[in-house]
Write a structure and sequence with these properties.
This protein is an alpha/beta fold and 323 residues long. It has 2 domains: 157 residues, serine acetyltransferase, domain 1, CATH 1.10.3130; 100 residues, UDP N-Acetylglucosamine Acyltransferase, domain 1 (3 Solenoid). Helices cover 46% and strands 9% of the residues. The protein contains 10 helices and 14 strands. The strands form 3 sheets. A 5-stranded parallel β-sheet has the order 1-4-7-10-13. It is globular.
Amino acid sequence: MSKLDMTIMTSGTISCKTDQDLISEHRKMLPAVIDSILQKIDDKSCFAHIGDQPIHFSTSVHEMIEKFREVLFPGYFSKEKLDGANLKYSMGQTVSQLHDILAEQITHVLRHDCLRYGQACSECESNGYKVALKTIERIPLLRNILSEDVRAAYEGDPAAKSHDEVIFSYPGLYAITVYRIAHILHELKVPQLPRIMTEHAHSRTGIDIHPGATIGQRFVIDHGTGIVIGETSLIGDNVRIYQNVTIGALSLPPGAGEKLRDAKRHPTIENDVIVYSGATILGGDTVIGAGSVIGGNVWLTQSIPPETKVFIEVPKLIYRYQH
């Protein structure tokens, strides 16, 4: 071995040892830092979840949603080919697995709230399986509704080459699918899980739909990134919304949260409305009449009658030519 090779090897060894010594010195400081954190752990002005039932999901919410999609769109997201030979067996197994996963998820959130907030016994496990079954029973109807969402997206988008493309690749349909499942759970009074599901879809698509919103059939989200639809929004049939649209609440004064928690705070969008990109529609008393068109970047906090078009005046463009 040459002297150069020996020098390189020795230098590398010294460097690694030095790094290890530095890491060790840093780690020696951790106990003091941990003690300082523990000293403040009981600070009532902050939040902690110590000694309470954890919300532990043995199967991730993402995996549960994917199992739902296998059932809602048979053959599209299955791991094996479906045909007449295995359809009944495969779908039976998938639905059975979905039921058990969903029942366990619901049981966890029911038990968490029961123990953490000192509620009367709600027979968590029994109700978990009961609600899971009620949800599964609504899948045939849910499939019909989602099929209309797919058709509406395809019919209104020349860029869509097929219904399959919409199902496989459109983030708007993914967000709507998750919302429609979560909305059923919300209606069945399941705590936390519906919001966890829609926030998962939000993180994946940039589309934030509260599970409490009420949305009609043939709903289309085009592109979708940046869309917000609040909890008490009412949206009719055949509505199309483009990216960066907010259907939200007006700003509230301090302390108004509890007073208005169950009040209608978000707009009503009637049938056959189009809302273009960047529009903001706010307020529980705001009603967008049927057949109306809301142009891009419009800001609305008041109602408009049916068959109304609202646009911002075309801005004046200034051209400065460089010589």
